[in-house]
From TrEMBL:
Belongs to the exbB/tolQ family. The lineage of its organism: Bacteria, Pseudomonadati, Bacteroidota, Flavobacteriia, Flavobacteriales. Residues 130-248 form the MotA/TolQ/ExbB proton channel domain. It holds the Pfam family MotA_ExbB. It is a multi-pass membrane protein. Its main location: membrane. This is MotA/TolQ/ExbB proton channel family protein. The chain crosses the membrane at residues 71-93, 170-191, 211-233.
Length: 264
């Protein structure tokens, strides 16, 4: 539930931020038009020319988005917002899960040699991250034997891996869904364009150009959403692989440390 609330909160903040940015852009453009109209030196410049000069990238994207139609463009935008919300939540979680494994291994080994298993467990308990959690589980089961500790490390490592990969499949779903929705919007737009040709009884470029342009906009936005989410997805998977490799190396080091400790 906490992760669900965090995803919803991030989505709300992103939506609110985009609305605020659009409002501030609109206010700035209005103020600049008023200043130009009030200036005696540029009386000859028309309001339409100023408006054309003040069109920003965000306004152009917004205009194209509206031209694409709310039906499919709204769904594509929802895929982007949800995908980014999940990606940001995963990036924050993975960064918080990153641990200096070499330092942790050295601290656990020193505590184990000086204060025994309880001291090593205390070090693992006071350290954040999945590697420390795996260490704590292995040390906690050491009283049942080295083999039991090793099985606990392997089993809990799988649990931690599942936590790292949680909700990542939703990002891949949105990556596949966004361009598919765009293609569907394009196909439906082309069908509507041919319906207009059939109704008019003639093939006039001006008659179908607008419909074809609108149809292609859905594909463009779908591909843009997929590209953005794919970048985040690759970063997240690379981060997960790095943490998993650290978990495996640290787990092997822990078993070796416990094996040496049991021989003393």
């Amino acid at each position: 539930m906490k992760r669900l609330f965090s995803i919803l909160a991030i989505t709300g903040l992103m939506t609110f931020g985009s609305v605020q940015a659009q409002d501030s852009t609109a206010v700035t453009a209005t103020e600049q038009v008023e200043e130009v109209a009030a200036s005696d030196d540029v009386v000859a410049i028309s309001t339409d020319d100023v408006a054309k000069e003040e069109v920003t990238f965000t306004q152009a994207i917004k205009k194209r988005f509206i031209e694409g139609g709310p039906a499919f463009m709204g769904i594509v935008l929802l895929c982007l917002i949800l995908g980014l919300a999940i990606a940001i939540e995963r990036i924050i979680y993975l960064n918080l899960s990153t641990t200096n494994t070499k330092k942790l291994v050295n601290d656990v080994e020193s505590a184990l040699n000086s204060g025994g298993v309880d001291a090593a467990k205390e070090v693992a308990r006071n350290t954040t991250g999945p590697v420390a959690s795996i260490f704590y589980q292995g040390l906690d089961r050491y009283s049942h034997g080295l083999e039991s500790a090793e099985k606990s490390v392997v089993a809990y490592g799988g649990v931690q891996m599942g936590q790292l990969e949680k909700n990542v499949s939703w990002i891949s779903l949105f990556i596949a869904l966004a361009p598919m929705l765009g293609f569907m919007g394009t196909v439906i737009g082309m069908i509507e364009a041919f319906d207009q040709i059939q109704s008019a009884g003639s093939m006039e470029p001006s008659l179908v150009a607008g419909g074809i342009k609108v149809a292609l906009l859905t594909t463009v936005f779908g591909l843009i959403v997929a590209i953005i989410l794919q970048i985040f997805y690759n970063y997240i998977t690379a981060k997960i692989d790095s943490i998993v490799n650290d978990m495996e190396d640290a787990s092997i080091s822990l078993i070796d440390i416990l094996s040496d400790y049991s021989k003393k």
